[in-house]
From TrEMBL:
Protein name listed in UniProt: Dihydrofolate reductase
Source organism, top-level taxon: Bacteria
Domain Bacterial bifunctional deaminase-reductase C-terminal: 3-178
GO MF term (any one): 5-amino-6-(5-phosphoribosylamino)uracil reductase activity
InterPro entries tied to this protein: DHFR-like_dom_sf, RibDG_C, Riboflavin_Biosynth_HTPR
Residue runs in coiled coils: none
Any single GO BP term: riboflavin biosynthetic process
Classification via PANTHER family: 2,5-DIAMINO-6-RIBOSYLAMINO-4(3H)-PYRIMIDINONE 5'-PHOSPHATE REDUCTASE, DIHYDROFOLATE REDUCTASE FAMILY PROTEIN (AFU_ORTHOLOGUE AFUA_8G06820)
Organism: Kribbella steppae
Length: 186
């Protein structure tokens, strides 16, 4: 059975992007990118909302960009090999292999996916993750806390939700990012 993991970059004040949608203050550099790549090897499926998918689809062709460092090429290959489900009522077609569109987020379908999966699953994007959190589907939270306070934007956690957590791991990166991994206490 796979775990459902919510993993994203967040500012110190809890935003995955600022009011203008920027998140460059938390963008990974080589050290943290290699760490993300290593964790991503255990992921079998990414669950995306449309906007997050449109950001991440870059990785479908990132390896073809001239002069890319090896760690970028490595992550691109990992991303390309992973299944992707995009939840969207407006997206007409996908621009990546191993990707399908679902029109609605169905918690029971995600429960079934978790039960059938040998690898873990991530839910990516704060709006889609909010639905999974409210449905009690998230088993683990992985936060990459960037060294910035942005004062507003898209929040990492939805309002009105309470979850008890147990710290499993932490790591400090030289760029000031702090990785925190929590399991949901059941």
């Amino acid at each position: 059975m796979g775990k459902l993991i919510y993993s994203m970059i967040t500012s110190l004040d809890g935003y995955v992007s600022d009011r203008e949608g920027n998140f460059g203050w938390g963008a990974p550099e080589e050290e943290s990118h290699e760490f993300v790549s290593e964790l991503s090897r255990g992921i079998g499926t990414y669950l995306y909302g449309r906007r997050m998918y449109e950001t991440m689809v870059y990785w479908e062709t990132a390896h073809t960009v001239p002069d890319q460092p090896q760690y970028i090429k490595d992550y691109a290959r990992i991303w390309q090999a992973t299944e992707k489900i995009v939840y969207s009522t407006t997206l007409r077609q996908v621009a990546s292999e191993r990707t399908r569109i679902e029109r609605t987020f169905d918690p029971d379908a995600v429960r079934a996916l978790k039960a059938e999966s040998e690898l873990d699953i991530t839910v990516d994007g704060p709006h889609l993750a909010a639905q999974a959190i409210r449905a009690g589907l998230v088993d683990e939270y992985q936060l990459y806390v960037g060294p910035a306070i942005v004062g507003g934007g898209n929040r990492f956690f939805p309002d009105g939700v309470t979850v008890d957590l147990e710290l499993l791991d932490e790591r400090h990166f030289t760029n000031g990012v702090l990785y925190l991994r929590y399991a949901v206490s059941r």
